[in-house]
Amino acid sequence: MITLSRRDFHRRLVPDDCPDTSYLEQPGFEDRLQQYRRGDFDYVGVRAAVQLPIPYGADRILVKIESPGLWGVESDSDENYLDSVFREECDTLADMLAELGVKVVD
Q: How far apart are alpha carbons 98 and 33 in whole angstroms?
């Protein structure tokens, strides 16, 4: 059985090429809409990723496994928020790995 530590998980911020920006058209978001149009921020997906070592004879092949991610996150979001989303994605990734028979420890 393969065992991984959650400390092996790392956060990936991936550009969101199709964000839903419709909320910026609502009253009260005029300043934020201008910031977006100026390019002051963009949208990203937050994912948890890990390199999974797959045994192959005497060797191991590393395969990257990633959580599905939370998309539409403002790129200038508070670091605490990004950490919170990452922790949730780590839970999802751990569940995915468990389905593959990988043991994940803290």
A: 41
Half-sphere exposure of 56 (CA within 13 A, CB side): 8
The whole-model pTM stands at 0.89
Which residues, at least 6 apart from 73, have a Cβ–Cβ distance to it below 8 Å?
16, 43, 44, 45, 46, 81, 82, 85
Task: Please name the residue ranges forming H helices in 1-106.
Answer: 30-38, 79-99
| Number of structural domains in the chain | 1
Beta strands at 103-105 and 3-5: parallel, antiparallel or unpaired: parallel
How would residue 105 be classed by pLDDT, with cut points 50, 70 and 90?
very high
Q: What are phi and psi of 103, to 5 degrees?
A: -90, 130
